[in-house]
Amino acid sequence: MKCHKFFINFFFIFYLFFSQANSLEIIRDTELEQFTDDIVSILLQNSNLESEDLEIYFIKSDQVNAFVTGGQNIFINTELFIKASDYREYAAVLAHELAHILGGHIFNTSIEISNLTNKAFPIYLLGIIGMITGSTDAGIAGIMVGQASLNDNFSYYSRTQEASADQAAVKILCNSGINGKYLIEFLKKIENASETYALDENNYRSTHPLVQDRIGWIHSSLLSYSECDYGSDEIFANKFELLKAKLHGFTHPHYETEAIYNSTKDADLYATAVSNYFQGNHSKSIENMKKLINKQPSNPFYNELIGEIYFANSDYKNAALYHGEAMKNIDKVNDLYHMMMGNYLLTFDEIDKSIEAINNLKKSLLINAENAYAWYLLSRAYAQTGSIALANYATAERYFLIGERELSYEFAVKALKHIEENSPEWYRSNDLIEILQKEVSKR
Predict the structure, then answer these.
(1) Model confidence over 43-102: pLDDT tens digits?
(2) Could you give the CA distance from residue 386 to residue 370 in angstroms, rounded to a whole number?
(3) Degrees to nearest 5, angle at CA 52 with 232 and 176
(4) Looking at the structure, do residues 161 and 225 belong to the same domain, yes or no?
(5) What is the pTM of this model?
(6) What is the pLDDT of residue 194?
(7) Does residue 135 sit in the same domain as residue 276?
(8) Is 64 helix (H, G, I), strand (E, B) or coil?
(9) What are phi and psi of 27, to 5 degrees?
(10) How many CA atoms lie within 13 A of 353 on its CB side?
(11) Is residue 424 part of a domain?
(12) Residues 324 and 181 in one domain
């Protein structure tokens, strides 16, 4: 992922995207990403599309919404997850968005855009170009502005697609062993949310058919699937409740989280551990997390969170220890886990720890080479081991990703003077110089 500014707040890593007209806060969380990927994989099992083909972004927002943009990008607001009462409601939303992609609605929308006013098209196009060229911060904001600028003709066109996506979602859900009626259950929540945000130009009513019409179409579709009354999966249900609690603690005020999650249940301990962390009451957070870990010591997300809390308190030994447990127990280690471990190890300022940090950061970048913060950490790690040429190379990669072309060029040139010839970094430094040379010379 490309980013303008990259911050770490315990297990969440935000990307802030700015434009004059719009501001999005995209969050990354391993637990949320893996849970979503597990459901998407089930929903796609009867299609030619793989979950790896998709880019799913989570927006920190108090509005209930989800949408698809050009290509195969799905955006989901955190409040949508929180407002869902059951994991099957969340699955129903995912099925609806996947139906847009599988139905080619994004391609059809691009054709329809060409028939709209010249005012709307350049804004939307600017967003798409931004994503292609690496300026994802401007790109996503541009697409959002473009959506808000489209005229009523497109809104009507979108409603037609929504009806088709609802009916296709029922088919996807029922063929995947998930009760399709939960799409109706969630639509009822959408209706309430639409009333709440009736004056907001970005609410669901602006681009979606009337909820009652949609419910009628879904009821009709369900008649074709007489055996769609599937029960709940207990594992998914438990994971959903814990993740919903964690998200609530992260996105809602402390007093609200404590009012809702006020028992000694696992979900309540989890929610208030997160909420207290942001209140600065770290001792309470650690107390809650130790209770949870005592019940389930192999839960990677519990170990991840308590490790981050220890890190915030400069207890680097415990931070690395617990995060190591998280990495050992998670089903699939992702780029964030390797990056966070690299960050923790750098705090020891010891050569052997720095070398270990380099190994983790290189693994992180092998999974996701577009993480600018991981390149920053890698440059620090190389500098700590005395590998200045490699530190310059990593810095060049970082500046390239955040759009600082002149600085990227300067550091690539510095790296090339002393870097080992014919190494991967040597070839990549040459590539960067070749890419940037013409662009920099024009300035």
Answers:
(1) 999 888 898 889 898 888 888 888 887 778 888 989 999 999 999 999 999 999 999 888
(2) 25
(3) 30
(4) yes
(5) 0.81
(6) 55
(7) no
(8) coil
(9) -110, 155
(10) 14
(11) no
(12) no
CA angle, 86 as apex, 46 and 272 as ends, to 5°?
Answer: 130
pLDDT at 214: 79
Tell whether the torsion through CA atoms of 337, 340, 344 and 347 is positive or negative: positive
Quick check: 40 and 95 in contact, CB under 8 A?
A: no
The verdict on 277 and 312 lying in the same domain is yes
Q: Are residues 103 and 20 in the same domain?
A: yes
Q: Residue 401 and residue 337: Cα distance in Å, rounded? A: 21
Whether residues 87 and 186 fall in one domain: yes
Helices 30-43 and 300-312 sit at what angle, rounded to 10 degrees? 160
377 located within any domain: no
Burial class (CB in 10 A: 0-12, 13-18, 19+), 383: middle
Residue 64 in tokens? 């209930």
Confidence at residue 8, expressed as pLDDT on a 0 to 100 scale: 35
Query: In this structure, is residue 225 part of a structural domain?
Result: yes
Claim to verify: residue 222 and residue 296 sit in the same structural domain: no
Task: Please report, as a single letter, which amino acid is at residue 112.
Answer: E
> 10 Å Cβ neighbour count for 373?
21
Q: Give the max Cα distance, the chain.
A: 70
Residue ranges for the chain with pLDDT beneath 70: 1-24, 106-159, 192-209, 441-443
Alpha-carbon distance of 142 to 22, in angstroms, equals 8
Q: 62: helix, coil or strand?
A: coil
* Residue 159 near residue 208, CB atoms below 8 Å: yes
Q: How many domains does the chain have?
A: 2
Domain residues for the domain of 299 are 252-332
- Model pLDDT for residues 7-42, shown as the tens digit of each residue: 333 334 333 333 333 456 788 899 999 999 999 999
